[in-house]
Amino acid sequence: MKITKKHQNQNLLVLLFQLISWWGCISLINSEIHFGIKIVVLIFFSLMMQGVFSLMHECYHDLGHSNKTVNATMALLSSTIFGTSSTLCKVNHIGHHYRNRTRHEIIEFVYPDESKFKKTLKQYFMVLGGVWLLSFLGLIILPFTPYRTSKIFALNDGNNTYSESFNKFSKTDWMRIKGEFVFSIFFISGFTYFMGWKWQTLLLCYGVFAFSWSSLQWVYHMRTPLDVVEGTYNLRLPTQIRWLFLNFNCNLTHHRDPNLPWQDLYKLSNQKETQPLWYRYLLVFKPPEPFPGDVAKYDKKYF
C-alpha cells in the first residue's frame, strides 16, 4: 500500500513525541520528585514504549515513510530507544507472520515429546520479560559474532521462533546489526552522560517496560486458533491507551492485511469481533497445559 503524505507526516510527529517522552520520563524518574509521581511517570513510560514498538513495526513493514532512507532512520531511532537492533527485530517480526501459531510460537501447550517443567520455565521466562531481554542481548552479543558462525544460534528444534529466525539473516543484515550496535552505544551513552542519568534509573525503567512489553506480546495469540493469520485477536482498550499503542491492539486486522497503516486499523476492524485486553492479559499467566485433543475449543469467542 502506498503511504499517504498525511500518514508519513503523522509518523514523523509520533516519533518526535516518543523521543521527547522517552527523554522526559527517564529524566523525571531520575530526579528527586515525589515517589508517587515517579510511579505515574513509570506507568506512562511503559505504555508509551508499547507505541515505540508499534512505530518500529510500521517501519519494518515499510509503512513509516515512503522514502526508504527516512523509513530506515525512523526504525533505527525507535529501535535504539526500545533497546534492540532494528534489523534483528525486523527479521524476527517478518518471520512471525509465517510462524504465528505454529509449533515455533506456541508456549501455552505442552506437546507429548516435551517436558512440562521446561515448557513452564520457558513460558514464564518469556512472559515475565524474556522476549525483550533476548532482543536486547541480541543487540549486545551478535555484533561480536562472525556471520559464518551465526547459525549456532539456530537451534533447529522446531520449538523456538527466536532461534529459527537466525536461519534468515543475510551477511548484509549481520553487518547492519554491527552498525546499529555502535549507534546505540553512542546514542544511549551520550544521553546518559549529558543528562546525568543513573544506571539504576535505566534499570528500573527498562525492567518495568521489559515485563509489560514481553507479557503483552503474548496477549493477542495465546489460546487462539492454530492458524497463521486467524490465530490472534483484536482487543479492546480505552481510547487514550489505544492511541499510545498506535492501534496495535487491532492485531487480527493487521495479520489479515499487514500492508494497512496503523492509522486505518481501528476503523477497519469490526468492533463486535473483539475481547477486552484485560481478560486476555490474565490468561497469559495461566500455566501451560497438555496439547488439547480438540483444538476447536479455542475457536474465536467474542464478548
List keywords for this structure.
303 residues, mainly alpha, two-stranded parallel sheet, two-stranded parallel ribbon, 12 helices, 59% helix
Secondary structure elements and pairings:
Blueprint: H1 5-30, H2 35-60, H3 68-82, H4 86-99, E1 109-110, H5 116-141, H6 161-164, H7 171-195, H8 199-219, E2 234-236, H9 239-244, H10 251-256, H11 262-265, E3 274-276, H12 277-283, E4 289-290
Parallel strand pairs: 1-4, 2-3
Helix pairs in contact: 1-2, 1-3, 2-3, 2-8, 5-8, 8-12
Report on the architecture of this protein.
The chain has one domain. The protein is 59% helix and 3% strand. The chain has helices spanning 5-30, 35-60, 68-82, 86-99, 116-141, 161-164, 171-195, 199-219, 239-244, 251-256, 262-265, 277-283, and strands spanning 109-110, 234-236, 274-276, 289-290. A two-stranded parallel sheet has the order 1-4. Helix 1 packs parallel to helix 3 (68-82), helix 2 (35-60) runs antiparallel to helix 3 (68-82) and helix 2 crosses helix 8. It is globular, with a radius of gyration of 19 Å. The two termini are 32 Å apart.
